[in-house]
Known about the structure:
This protein is α+β, with helices and mostly antiparallel strands. It has two domains: 6-239, Jelly Rolls (Sandwich); 242-302, no CATH class. 24% of the residues lie in helices and 29% in strands. Strands 1-8-5-10-3-2 form a six-stranded antiparallel β-sheet. A hairpin with a 4-residue loop joins strand 13 (227-228) and strand 14. Bound molecules: 2-oxoglutaric acid. Residues 79, 81, 85, 87, 92, 106, 121, 181-183, 195, 197 line the site of 2-oxoglutaric acid (AKG).
Amino acid sequence: MGSPSFADTGVAIHRGLLTTAVTLLDGVRAAHDTRWPTQDRVLDGWRRDPRVRALATHPAVLDAVESVYGRSPIPFQTLNFRRGTGQPLHADLIHFDSVPTGWVCAAWVALEDIDDDQGPVEYVPGSHLEDFSRVHLAERTGRFDNAVYEDAVARHVGDRPRARFTASAGDVLIWHGALLHGGAPVVDPASTRWSQVTHYFLDGFAYVTPQRSPAGSDDFFVRDPLVDISTGRPVGHTLDGAPARLWRRAHDRTTLLRAADPPPPVPARVASTVRGARRRVAWWTEPARDALRDHLRGRRARG
Ligand SMILES: O=C(O)CCC(=O)C(=O)O
């Protein structure tokens, strides 16, 4: 029998993938330490530092992600860590997902040797297959509550075995967006655990924020603009293999229109007076809006 596959476990382990890129790994640590000396966790450092960006877009990492999914990766977010996070188990797709679901992953890179004392990444092998987080999001009532979600995950996992990614500098762990993972407890509080994780979408889908998308509806909070770290340019959304058009109905509610749907109604600008100040208000031209709503209702009813 061969080694367990990404499809079964939800992870792809690449020992030594970046061992020879030691100058870059050290550079990312130095970037974190000098630019953000008081922050243990840095979100989107790639925007300020070319070394963080270079690691997020390293050809060996992009190839490893592409070989798992058979599609081009779109790096879109980085997190840099100085210490173990001790983060409770969760799946990334509460924060970001594709439509259809699951075309999202992370690549976590050890910037130093990491053992059990430093709070390595841990995960529940195979948990991506259960789709627990997507179902939790779909069935929630009201707004997403992270504490409620983390409790539900902990109960769901119970005392099932967790795997730990103790690592040498340059080792890379890729995990599926639905895999339950977090940071093991930090045993030595003085320890560092230098690491960078980059999140990737795969090319050819629409990209959304599930926890901000309305539950029980086919509207989404669409990530727009979504910037590809490789190019620094916004990425288009695709649905059924064709460019998706967006009908923005409210701040956190956008309908993704398919190729066969009518175009979104054009907002007409009208002026209103509020407390003496002139304010511009976007208003949908009503007949076009009503026709599109009827069309979408019909589409939903037909499944
Ligand atoms: O590095 C860790 O401890 C966990 C990181 C993590 O959970 C994430 O990036 O989603």
